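Problem 12. The chain below contains 406 residues. Write out its predicted structure in token notation.
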Amino acid sequence: MNDDSVVTLHELHFGVEEDGEWEVGRPETGQFVRLPVEGVALLESLALGLRLAEVRERFADRFGAEPELDEFLEGIGECGFVASVDGQVLDDPLGPAAPRRGLTLLANVRQERVAWLVTRPMLALYLAVWVAVPVLLLAYPRLLPRPSDALPFDGALVNAVTLGFVGWGLVLLHECAHAIIARALGCTGSLSLSRRLYFLVAQTDVSGVRSAPRRRRYAVFLAGMTWDLAVMLGCLAGQLLGLSGPAGQLARAVAYALALSVIFQFQVFMRTDMYYVLVNWLRLGNLMEDTRHWLADAVRSLVNRPPRHDMSLVPARELRIVRWYAPFYLLGSAATFAVLGLLTVPALSQMVDLALRGIGGGPSSSHFWDGLGFLLLVAFQLAALAWVFVVERRDRRGGELSVGSP
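Solution.
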């Protein structure tokens, strides 16, 4: 490119000004960045179809200095904002037609058909669900989910298979709830497997929701938990009305699984639903990534090594929040791994030992099939977690906004 070149941009969404920055991006790709007024001014000049020399002149007249235009163009090109240069259309690796990891959810659902889901009466109903569950549990303590509820049937294998199907079915419905509310706001989500520390989760990428006002994004972030609480409310009501037998046992198992899922979402030191609620409320960009970069540089400074990450572009307000969040992030992560080492691994080792003893009894024994089924399920879970870890390291993309459930 030279001074006579003309750079054409894709249609971009410009958010409202917050703390001297604007959120700019393409809703159809989910790629958004936060830019100061200088960056927005450059985009506005490029959108007018001006030559690069004219873009520089307009910037210098307004801000009294020459822009780093080549570096800026390289950055927005990596974000997929540039459509063409001098009439030559560029490949769009982040465009709607580009191959993307994950399964697109409910993309064919028309927004006007589901817009009623984010009307005020529905939002009031969602709030009522959030209030009803704790009120019911406080009023009837016998309904509180207990670990024994996770074993509704006799036999390890039938419990493992049943709870596996029920659990992942609930996860899929949780993610569909995120996606349907995103469609109600005119956005589309894509479902994929991911991880939170060592937890295997399903997640829905709803990055496009950043084109909506911040106050409307809460409905998307909280949609999965709201659905979980609604189903849990139904299970608790069934028990209160005397539901018994296999149906009653299954209702208690579902309520227990959903209770764990809701508790998991409050662990904001991971990218849980409530983490995104917190980030949206604090008007931040990428709190988790900035915290990791800040901690990595802090460790390097302790051994007199230069910082690896440039934190100069992070606003001072966000850096103050990062410093507050970093100890909580470290303590939460350490506690989670402590639970893994002190409780989960020993318990899993004992169950594996029991399964191996059952296999030693031969195929004629029911313990053989229980043990074999359990080991296959554990192996599948560990293999899936390893696969996700490898794929995410290979295909990691910054800026995604993905809400997930275990």
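Discussion. The beta strands are 7-9, 13-14, 21-26, 31-36, 82-85, 88-89, 103-105, 189-196, 199-205, 402-405. Students who got a different answer should revisit the alignment rule from Section 12.3.
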